[in-house]
Here is the input.
Amino acid sequence: MKLELHGLSVRYGRGRNLMTAVDGIDLAVPAGATVGLVGESGCGKSTVARAVVGLVPTSGGRILLDGVDVTANRVRNRPEFRRRVQMVFQDPYASLNPRMSIQAILKEAAARADGSRPRRAPAEMAELVGLPATVLGRYPHQLSGGQRQRIAIARALAVNPGVIVLDEVTSALDVSVQGSVLNLLRDLQREMNVSYVFISHDLSTVRYMSDTVSVMYLGRIVETARTEDLFARPQHPYTTGLIDSVPRLHAPRTTAPLAGDLPDPRRPPTGCRLSPRCPVGPLHRPDREICHTTDPQSIAAQKVHEAACHFAVDAAHAVVPAP
Amino acid sequence: MIRAFFRSPSGIAGSCGVLLILLDSIFAPIIWGKRAKAFNVLQGDKGPSGKHWLGTDRLGHDIFYQLLVATRLTMEMALGATAIAILVGIPLGAGAALLPQRLRMIALRGLDTLIAFPSLLIAIAFAAVLNPGKTSAVVGVGVGLSFSFGRVASSLTLAIRDREFISAARVVGVGRMRLLVRHVLPNIADSLAIATTVSIAASVVTMAGLSFLGLGVQLPSIDWGRMLTTGVGSFYLTPFAAIGPGVAIALAALAFGFVGEALARASNPVLWANAGGGTSPRSTCDADTERADDPHESDAANVLEVNDLTVSFPIDKRREPIVRGVALDLAPGEMIGIVGESGSGKSLTAMAIAQLIPHPGQVGGRIALNGKDLQRVPLKDVDRTLGTSLAVVFQDPMSSLNPAMKIRNQLIEGARHHRGLSKAEAVLAARRRLREVNLPTPERQLERYPHELSGGQRQRVLIAMGLMNEPSVLIADEPTTALDVTVQAQIMDLLAGINAEHGTAVILISHNLALIAQNCDRVLVMYAGRVVEEMTAEQLKTQALHPYTQALLGAVPDMSQPRAEPLVSIPGQMPDVHSVPAGCAFHTRCALAVERCSIERPPLLLQTDRHRVACWVATGEPSAELPAHASVAAGEAS
Here is the structure.
C-alpha cells in the first residue's frame, strides 16, 4: 500500500506557546518499501508517526493512501482506515495492556481485521513473529522486552495492514535483542509486502532498514535520498553532521561536527533553521548572510537528491578529524 | 484470579466478615425479628446482663438483637447508596477524562465544583425535596458520593489515558466503549475497588449522621446509625447502647476494606502471576577472584584497583550476588570502558566503587583508590577521600541535579565542604570549571536552575561539578544515552579533553560498543555480573574472542554493516539474578557451547598481551573454530 504525505503540518498550543511540530513535510512510501525518517529528539518525527495513524489531528496538508485522501480526522478514525495503517510503539513495556493476556491482546486486534479474509488465530500470529504458542496464556510482564515487542508487532499485523509506522521500535531493547527484531521486521515485509515508515534517531539502524531516508530538523525535512546515496554523498550539512556524529567501530573519532543544541522549536531561527549551528554557514563563513535571510526549503524540490541548503556541495567536506 | 483472591489473608478475613454480615442481614430479621421488637419499659436502660448481652435501651428493647436485625437495613442502604455512586460516578468521571481536550477541561472543572458540596448537604437537600426517609437518604448519599467517586475515576483515567497501550488499542481500532471497559477500567480497578469499600463505610457513617438529624431512617425502622444516635443520648447510663453499633460499623467497614484490598491484589496479574519460564539450576555463588592467572600484585602506580568485587542484594529472603568477583585496574590518565547489557552489573560495579550502593546491598572485595584501601580508611574520612579523588556522572542529568537549587550552589557545595574554600573562591572555581566544559557565559549559567538548561547543558554542568575537586578518577555511567548523537559527540569531545589535559582517569560505562571502541584504551565486557572478556580497544575491533562479545558486535547495525545481510541474533535473554545458569552463565545462549560449559565456570585467563577471556571453547584448543557471526537467528523464543 502506498502512503503519501503532501505538505503535512501539525501544530500544538496557541498564542505564545504555538509550536509547529511538523512544518509542511512531503513523504512518499511506495508499496512494500521502507522509508526511514531520522532526526534528533524534538525534530517532530514522532509527531509525524502519530499524525499518520490518527492519534494527533493534522493542521495542514494531505495524507493519501493509495491515492485516496484520508486527511480528515473523521476518516482516519474509521475502522477501514485503522485496518490499513498500523503502528508499533517505542516502549513494549508501556504499549501492551498489563491486565490482558497475550491471547486476549492478539484476539482483540484480529477481531478488527477485514472480514473478507480468514482471521488468524492468536497461535498463528505468535508463530509468525517467532514465539511459541505457550506465550499466549501469559501476561505482558512475564515476557522479556524483545518478546513483548514481537507481540506488539503481531498485534499490528493482525488486522492485515498495508502500512506500518515503526516508531523507535528497537531503542528500548537490549543490544543483543535488537538484531533479531530488525531481522524479523525485514522477513515479515518480504512475506507480507507491507510498507514501513521506519522512525529512529539511530542512523545505523535507519541505514540498515530503509530504501530511502528523509532527514528531519526542527519540523522540516532537510534532505531526502536513496539510502546508499544519502550515506555515501550527504548533501545537507545537517545530514553530514549527523552521520559524522555516530560512533563507529572501525573509524577513528572525529570532533563533534555540530555545535550547540536544538533551538526552541516554538521560536525557530530565521532563514535556514540550521544556520546558528551550521559548520558551513555564517557561523564560520561570514559572507554567507543568505543563510540568515532566506529560507532554503524551496530549493529541495528542484533537485533529484533533495537537500534544503544554499551551499549543499560544501557540506560533504566539513569533516574535521579529531586530534 | 479467584484463587489469588482467596490465597491472600485479607481476602479470607474480609470475605468471612462480609459473608457473616450478609447472612446476618438475610436471616436475622426472620429468626430474631420478634425478639428485637419485644420491649419492656420496666427493663429500660439496663446494663449488660446474661439475658441482655449488650443491655437494653430506654424502652427495654434488647440492644444485641436489635443490632443483629438492624444489619439488613443498614447494609441495604449502604450498598444502595454505593451502587448509585458507582453507576453515576464511574461513567461520569472516566467518560469526562476520555473527552476531547476542550470538553474535558469543562467537565472536570464542573466535577470539581460539585465535590465542594459535602454529601451530607446533598442528602439534606434530597430529604427536603423527597420525604425524609430511607429513599431520600439512599439517593442523597449516593449522589453525594458519586461526585467524589467520579473525581477518583477521572484522575485515575487521566493518569493512564495517554499511556501507549491505550494509544495502541485506538490504532488497532478499538471503540470508545470497549476502550473504557477493557483497557481503562481493568487498569484502574484496584483503586476503584478500594474507593468502593471506602464508599460503603462512608455511606454507613453519613446515614448515621442523617438519622441523627432526623432526616434518615424514621422509627420504628432502625439501622445502626439510628441506634448509635439513640445510644449516644444515654451514653453515661448504658454505654453499650452506643458502643455496640459503633463497633458494628467499624467491623463492617474493616471487612469491606479487606475485600477491597484483596480484590485489588487479585485484579493485578503483575502481583500474583509468577514470572514465566522454568528456573535453571542455580550457580554456586563462589566469589573467588576473577583473574585466576595472575594473583593481582599491587601496583602503586594505579589510581584505582578493584579486586574480587561483589555486590549482593537480599531478594526473597536470600542474598543474591549481582556482581560476582570483578577485578579491574586503572592507570593514571587511562580511559577504560565497561560494556554490557542491562542486568550485566556494569552500573552496580561503578556504584560500588563510588560507595553508592544503597542500604540492603552489600559490597565485598577490595577497592583501592590512589593506593588507599577504602575498607581501611576510617569511616569519617571516606567521604573526603571519595569527594576529593573520585567523581561520578550519571545517565540522566535531570534527576542528578536538585531542581530547586541554583547551579551555583550545587557546584560550590562540594568544594566548600571537602576543600574548605571560601564562598568567593568556590564561585571562582565554579566559573572556571563551567568554562572548561564549554558552557557559554558561565556567569549567567551559575544563576540558572536545572530546568532552564537543555539536556546537553545539564550533562556539562554535572561534569563540571565532578571536576570541581580535581578528581583523579571520573566514572561516567552511560553519560550520553539520554542525549542525541550530535550532543553525544560534543560530550565525548569534552571527556576526551579532560582526560588528555588533566590526566583524569575515566571509566566509561556504555552499551554502545562503537562508542567505547572509539574512546577507550581498554574494554571490559560484562555478562551476568562477571567480566567475560578484557582487552584493548584495538583487540575489540578485530580480535574479540568471547562468543558473547562477538555476538554483540554483530547484533547491532554498524554504519559499515552490509545492508543485505541479516544481523546476528542472540537467542534467549540475559538471565536474571535468580536463575544464573551453572557453569558459564552464557552457555544457554551460546552457539558454541559444549558440555563442559554447563558444568564448570571458565576462569578469566590471560591469552595474549593484555587480552583475558573467560571461555572454554574460544580458548581451549587453539584450533577452535570461531565463525565471525556465530549464532543463528533462532529468535528469542524461550
